[in-house]
Amino acid sequence: MADPTPTPTPSPPTTAAPELDQSFYTWSNFFSILTGSATPNERAAYFRTRDTLNEERDCKRCDADKAWLFQYSPIIRFMKHNIDLLGPPDGSASINESNVRCRRCDSQQSGGFDSEYGILVCANQLRNRGHLEDTLAHEMVHAYDHMRFKLDPYDLRHAACMEIRASTLSGECRWTREFFTRGQWSVTQQLQECVRRRAVLSVANRPACQGDKVKAERVVDSVWESCFQDTRPFDEIYR
């Protein structure tokens, strides 16, 4: 059972092909983006070319950071341990370095979870190791929920609960992340506002919702209390 959130399409881990059109990857386009004069198509073409040219470097860095996190990150080690407890003794359902794959993605997502594939990490969308840690933690909460609660991600209420829990427990909605990387400066109810915003966006993008934000908000509201308060496998919100 796969998470129906549009999964970023992984590209083969290769360097740029000879036929790659590099005409958009120029200083002129770079400065037009900085000054805000570039069109959406020009921006997309520039970043697509940049990501293709840097694919090998980005994936190599992602793999190195992934190995470090599985060895030293408290939240990644904790989530792996609790996922392992839910699976068979042979470890066949474990989330580990072998089924967390760093790839170049053509979407703006930083990652995705699939029960058969494992976790896809979009190496070209990562800012730093901390961003990777938040992304891995988010997707590992999805993996835990899939194994522990048998949630149906095609059910919008289940999908909303999955996103509420993942955004709450992964650390991606902590105040410093919101303030410094997303420009969200609210102080009161900051965590709740971030979690709700991200859950509504995710639910609205699912096929059963078809971009209906009002419907997505109703679904999120209907499960909010029980899902936001459910911190398993943590005793409380970790960070």
From TrEMBL:
Any one cellular-component term (Gene Ontology): mitochondrial inner membrane
Compartments reported by the entry: Mitochondrion inner membrane
Known EC number: 3.4.24.-
Bilayer disposition of the protein: Peripheral membrane protein
Broad enzyme group: hydrolase
Keyword Hydrolase on entry: yes
Pfam families: Peptidase_M76 (PF09768)
Superkingdom to which the source organism belongs: Eukaryota
Keywords noted in UniProt: Hydrolase, Membrane, Metal-binding, Metalloprotease, Mitochondrion, Mitochondrion inner membrane, Protease
GO molecular function: metal ion binding; metalloendopeptidase activity
Biological processes, Gene Ontology terms: mitochondrial protein processing; mitochondrial proton-transporting ATP synthase complex assembly
Role according to the record: Has a dual role in the assembly of mitochondrial ATPase. Acts as a protease that removes N-terminal residues of mitochondrial ATPase CF(0) subunit 6 at the intermembrane space side. Also involved in the correct assembly of the membrane-embedded ATPase CF(0) particle, probably mediating association of subunit 6 with the subunit 9 ring.
Protein family according to the UniProt entry: Belongs to the peptidase M76 family.
Protein name stated in the entry: Mitochondrial inner membrane protease ATP23
Organism, scientific name: Hortaea werneckii EXF-2000
